[in-house]
Amino acid sequence: MMDSRIYTLLILLGITFGLKAQSTKELKDITDKIIIHDTKIKIGKTTPGLIAAMIDNDSTYIIDYGSTNMDSLTRMTEHTIFEMGSFSKVFTISLLSILKDEGLVDYESSVNSLLPKVFENTKIGDKLKLKHLLSHSSSLPKLPNDFGLKQPDPNDPYSAYTKEDLLSFYATHPFEDWNGESYVYSHVNYALVEVIIEHVTKKSYREL
Questions:
Q1: 103-140 pLDDT, tens per residue?
Q2: Of 142, 144, 185, nearest in space to 162 by CA
Q3: How many angstroms separate the CA atoms of 65 and 39, rounded?
Q4: Other C-beta atoms lying within 10 Å of the C-beta of residue 203
Q5: Which phi-psi region, left, alpha or beta, contains residue 77 (left: φ > 0; alpha: ψ -120 to 50)?
Q6: Neighbours of 197 (CB within 10 A)
Q7: pTM, whole model, 2 decimals?
Q8: Cα–Cα dist 62/99, whole Å
Q9: CA distance 112 to 184
Q10: DSSP code of 188?
Q11: 170: burial class by Cβ within 10 Å (0-12, 13-18, 19+)?
């Protein structure tokens, strides 16, 4: 997940784009000021490293800070792979809005009706709607309670948690505190929406 310091960095870099980039060194001086002084990001202490990528007309500049992880001195490059956090939620809601316009889904539909029958949650029944997932008012936690038991690599935390794991977690969730109104930011919500999209279209999320 990207914290407010990174968002601030992106905003400040966006402002910087208004200046004609003259050289990598000049851009490095500008980004140094932003990262080291304006955002207070502690490279090498609380944050392993980051990359600032800037485009000026037909020129691209890659400026790296820190290393790939806290225990390494390996510098990052334009080929370094990052976990993108919640950016996928933008693609998910965009796909869902297209399906809604095509009449394939309705935000008032129950979640149970949009998932395979074998993973129906009988405790919540038809009360939980698709709109509750989208608005983070489902009361589902940020991550499944059993997520840490299936996390062999902290640098790739979602690799071992399968779609079946997610659906099984949903099917057995007690929904004891559900009222349809309380806001709880949850990755589970949008992971379920991705599964719903696949189930409705009979296509993989990657293909869509």
A1: 999 999 999 999 999 999 999 999 999 999 999 999 99
A2: 144
A3: 14
A4: 11
A5: beta
A6: 21
A7: 0.69
A8: 37
A9: 20
A10: H
A11: buried
